[in-house]
Amino acid sequence: MIMSDNQELKVREKQAFDAPAEQTKPGPVFTPSVDIFETEKAITLLADMPGVKAEDLMVDLRDDTLTLAGEVSDSVKTTGEKVLEEYQTGRYYRQFSLSEVIDQEKIDAKLSDGVLRLTLPKVEKATPRRIAVQVG
After folding, report:
1. Mean pLDDT (whole number) for 62-80
2. At the top level of CATH, which class does the domain 27-73+86-124 belong to?
3. Do 35 and 43 form a contact (C-beta atoms < 8 A)?
4. Higher model confidence: residue 76 or residue 110?
C-alpha cells in the first residue's frame, strides 16, 4: 500500500459501547465499525463483527429502528501459559434510525467473513428518475 506523506495508516480498535441502562449479562459490549454507501436504488451498510457466527447474530427492525446485535465468545481452547492476549470477546450492539425512503419490507442481510452486509433498498418514489418532456 503506497501512502502519501499526509496520510496515516490507522488501526481501529473495538470501541466499547456506553449502554443507556445496566447490563444483565457480564462482559463488554462493543460498537461495530460501519461503512455506509448510497446509490440511486439502495443504501448498503457494512458492519465489522469479527468472530460472530450467523446463529449468534440478530438483525431486528422495529418502529423504524434497525438494531444489530451479535455475540462472540472465546471458542479457541489452548494449553500452556498465556503470554499475550489482545483479542477481546463480548457482544456487539448498534442501532440506526431509518428514514421513510427505505423499503423496510425488502431489507437483505448477509454475513461473510465477519462482515455483515445490509442492503436497504429505497422505495420506488425515492429513486431518482428522469422525466420525459412531451412536445406539443
Report:
1. 84
2. mainly beta
3. no
4. 110
Q: Running DSSP on this structure, what letter comes out for residue 14? A: P
C-alpha cell recorded at residue 105: 419490507
- In whole angstroms, what is the distance from residue 88 CA to residue 37 CA? 28
Assigned C-alpha cell, 47? 458492519
Q: Is the pLDDT of residue 3 over 50?
A: no
Residue 46 CB: number of other CB atoms within 10 A?
15
pLDDT band at 45 (very low <50, low <70, confident <90, very high): very high
Give the residue extent of every domain in the chain. Answer: 27-73+86-124
C-alpha cell at 94: 448498534
Cell numbers at 118, concatenated: 445490509
**CB neighbours of 104 closer than 8 A, spacing ≥ 6?**
61, 64, 98
